[in-house]
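Summary for the steering committee. One of the milestones for this cycle was to obtain a three-dimensional model of the protein with iron/sulfur cluster bound, which we needed before selecting residues for the alanine scan. The sequence and ligand used are listed below.
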Amino acid sequence: MVEWSESQIVPISAISHHLYCPRQNALIHTEGVFSDNTLTISGNIGHQFVDEEKSYLDHGLRKETSYRVFSEEYGISGIADIIEFPPDAPPLPIDYKNGKISSWENQESQVCAIALCLEEMLEVKITIGAIYHIQSKKRHEFTIDDSLRQKTIQAIQEIRNNLMNNIVPKAEYSKRKCDNCSLYSLCLPKLDSSKQNKNIFTPVDFNG
Ligand code: SF4
């Protein structure tokens, strides 16, 4: 088993940010900045139900919220929104999500990372994960297959590399992503790439 130092542990919450935009994740986890917009605020409000650590029975099905997970193999840790424990099937990790369906695939990797932890912690094999969409109350189930596992593991490695080396990737403006990003005003994605900061706390030389 790999011995990870504290600084090498990748927070699972970083995975969906990184897959959405590596710069967004680096600004949050390397630079330590965060800024809410209407999407993140509505997500926080709807998320409160799973923010408290509890265990309960729902029609005979055991459920645990804010379930802490860790993988020694992959050097990741985090908190799962909710885990269902069916009596005759492997645990089912579920992520509570607000927002647009187009961004759900990033969330699938985050759920996959939780599944990797549960497999190691509970010695089970998990093939299904789910995302619960708070606004529509719809549940999206998906297969945790080899391709999703590889994508997730690669993202973990990229995040660790960025964190360990203080890498903040340059912005690549995308209307779909940037116009919905809460960090837009800090990131300045339309700024000439030669003037984009590695570190947003360093003053930009607009005359350079
Ligand atoms: S504004 Fe765009 S480039 Fe900048 S962090 Fe957000 S998504 Fe990434």
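Key point for the committee: Residues 171 and 191 are 9 Å apart (CA to CA).
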